[in-house]
Amino acid sequence: MATHFGVAIGAGRDGELAGIRLVRMKPNGGFETIPTGEPTVKETAKDALMINVPIAAGGELTIDCTPNSMTFEATGVGAPKDWALELSWASSQKTAVKQVEPQAIKYQHNGFDYSLKCDCGSVQKRGESAIVITPSDTGVRFAF
After folding, report:
1. Residue 46 contacts by C-beta under 8 Å, 6 or more apart in sequence?
2. Number of domains in the chain
3. Among 62, 92, 105, 143, which is 20 to 30 Å from 48 by CA?
4. pLDDT per residue over 23-68, tens digit each?
5. What residues contact 39, with CB distance under 8 A and at least 6 apart?
6. What is the Cα–Cα distance from 133 to 144, expressed in whole angstroms?
7. Apex 63 CA angle, 110 and 105, nearest 5
């Protein structure tokens, strides 16, 4: 398993990775990428998808996508307990993100304000070009 879930090709600059990836929280407060395999996608309903991302050390990251929410959970034998998601972009790039609160990512597009609410888990900005999404006991859930 040599791939990493969610790394966007061409979205980074000057060697900086961009995208969303599974990370482990280190004792010193830093993060390290958790190696994953190729995701599989299954249509679970007419308007819903389930994405399963195998984790190299065991278990999997499941992403349940519905019209009203997106839920992330690390499950199975060997799944890390100290996981988080890191959303990052090249520091030289401008994004639509305007503010990050513990339960929301606020952004603006074409002059309109939007908010992505995190009603399970928490969100925090890390530097000028990353957001860390930390699960609660049951995972992460964004409500639309």
Report:
1. none
2. 1
3. 105
4. 998 888 888 999 999 999 999 999 999 999 999 999 999 999 999 9
5. 5, 51, 52, 53
6. 16
7. 35
